Amino acid sequence: MTGSITTRRPPLRDVARRAKVSEPTVSRVLNGREGVAPATRDRVLAALTEFGYTAVPEPARTRRGAVGIVSAELTNPVFALLVHEIVERLAHHGMVATVGVAATGLASEERYVQEFSESSVDGVVFIAGRHAEQDADLSSYQQLIDNGVPIVLVNGGPVALPVPQIRCDETQAAQRAMEHLIALGHTSIGCVLGSTRYLATARFITGYKRASMRAGLNLGDETVAHSVFTYEGGRAGATRLLDKGVTAMICGNDLMALGAIGACRARGLDVPNDVSIIGYDGTDFTATADPPLTTMRQPFTDMGELVADALVAQIEGSSRYLDTYVFSPELLARSTTGRVPN
């Protein structure tokens, strides 16, 4: 829309309030910048018209080829692998990624949202961000959506946002891990998991309890140890479960599983002759661990390719991938699981 100025620019906050959008969105429209959804742009234009302002340039339709990736951390190999696969696939699309690590919590993720909004990236990928937590504030994601910035959410959710959401099935991972251990004769099986505030933890517990009930085992909250997703967290959680006399453990990630092995060795217990351990993620180092770790592997390559494809499709104006995609994990049975000790 073009036209002559009939009055001075109204305050951004007033227009934003009238159009029910953020102030940055109004600014993008006023400055003729791309990245605002057509329906949102129309609301802003209508609000500006009500204030008597009509000199709004049409946005330039150009793709810059730059995207942002915000990961919860990179010290955990699972996130580094996902980032690698996403970046590789984006390169095939001619896109370059800037990676940010939200290692200090939600405030850090909010900072990246603001920076990426101001730098006009084509899209943003979030890996295990605030969308991975129960009852999280999703307003920063909504801000990007309102500004017309495509986003993809990885390893979290589901959340009530009209964006692609991609993750592995933690419920299925726990069920299949339990079935593997039960087939080996184990009936006293514990779980070493992260905080209950994470949606993945809740799904893991669902699978654990479902498999327990199907096998007629009386396993409940007392055999679930919550800790942090690190080696030390796994060791601490496993120590609590060993006190309860479990003969096998399923861990929330591979690092925790290594910590659980450390806890067993500290007690003079052998893995797997005394205690069996299963991890989750299937990161590369698990094959060469001592002993090689039995784990539930996420299909990193397939997930990373879909993340990149879904983001690029949105950037190009397609709604093809606006859905939730849940991948199945694969059991890698190695040397840390064995038959129940006599």
Write the layout of secondary structure elements.
Layout: H1 12-19, H2 23-30, H3 38-50, E1 66-71, H4 77-92, E2 96-101, H5 106-119, E3 123-127, H6 139-146, E4 151-154, E5 165-168, H7 170-183, E6 189-193, H8 199-214, E7 224-226, H9 231-243, E8 248-251, H10 254-266, E9 276-281, E10 294-297, H11 300-315, E11 324-327, E12 330-332
Parallel strand pairs: 1-2, 1-3, 3-4, 4-5, 5-11, 6-7, 6-8, 8-9, 9-10
Antiparallel strand pairs: 10-12
Helix pairs in contact: 1-2, 1-3, 4-11, 7-8, 9-10
Question: TL;DR?
Answer:
The protein is of the alpha/beta class and 342 residues long. 41% of the residues lie in helices and 16% in strands.
Q: CATH H-level name of the largest domain... which superfamily?
A: Response regulator
Strand content: 15-25%
- The number of domains is 3
Shape: elongated
- Largest sheet features: 6 strands, parallel
The helix/strand class is alpha/beta
| CATH topology (level 3) name of the largest domain | Rossmann fold
The CATH architecture of the largest domain can be given as 3-Layer(aba) Sandwich
Task: Give the termini separation.
Answer: 79 Å
